[in-house]
Amino acid sequence: MNLKLVWKVMLSLFMLVPLSAQQDTKPVLLHKIEPQYTEEARAAKIQGPVTLSTVVRTDGSFSAIKVVSGLGHGLDEKAIEAVRQWRQARHEGR
Description:
Helices cover 32% and strands 20% of the residues. The two termini are 30 Å apart. The strands form 2 sheets. Strands 1-4 form a two-stranded antiparallel ribbon. Strands 2-3 form a two-stranded antiparallel ribbon. The chain has one domain: TonB (TolA/TonB C-terminal domain, 2-Layer Sandwich). The protein is an alpha+beta fold.
C-alpha cells in the first residue's frame, strides 16, 4: 500500500471520529502485561518489535488484534496474548 493511500485512509477515519473524541488526550493504560519470550525465539536469538493493530472497545479492552509486522518463533502469538489482557481507561464522550 502506498503512503498516499494510507494517509487518505487515516484522514478519512479521523474525520469519522466524533468531535468530542478528537480532543488532544493520550490513552492511559490501566493494566499492561509484557509478552513472554519463547524458548524457540531464545534458541534462534530472535529479538525485535512485533507490531499489532487493534480496536479498543468502550470498556477499555482490546479486540480484533492482528499482526502487522511479526517476528515468528511464537513471539507474535505471545504479543497477542499479552495485549488481550491490557485494559485502557475510559474517556468521557467515547
